[in-house]
Amino acid sequence: MTEQHPFFPQMEYAFSIAIKLSGPPTRIQPCVTGQNRAIIHITEGTITGPMLQGRVVPMSGADWAQVRPDGTLDFDARYTLELADGTPVYMQNRGYRWGSPEVMAAQARREPVPFDAYYMRVSPRFEVPDGPHGWLARHVFVGVAEKLPEGNAIHYFVVR
To answer: pTM score, two decimals?
Structure first.
């Protein structure tokens, strides 16, 4: 039996964000700095869940993913949320997606791939006005993401 560490974090499902992505990404490759970059705009999205509801403001941001030599995508997505009560929120998502070359190629062609065939995790940060949604800027979140043909669905868990 494995002993659980006394500081093992507890997590609680908070919300999901489903986003749609624009057409093919703009690629900057090879960059003069040595990495490759893929830029794709977020056209729209919805926020659903027990702790948060709202929408992703259309065309308010993009993902500026670095494509590593090993095929790993290093995400840096930034966009604006509008919560159900009208509160604007700036969100930055950092994370990684990787899988076998075959899986990554299928995803690049926007083909469906089973969730357990790849790794896609993110960690967001929020900037939000002081008030009822201030908790977003005071907690750590872990997002488990699904790559879908039209975009992504990311399920966020707040670390307690």
So the answer is: 0.92
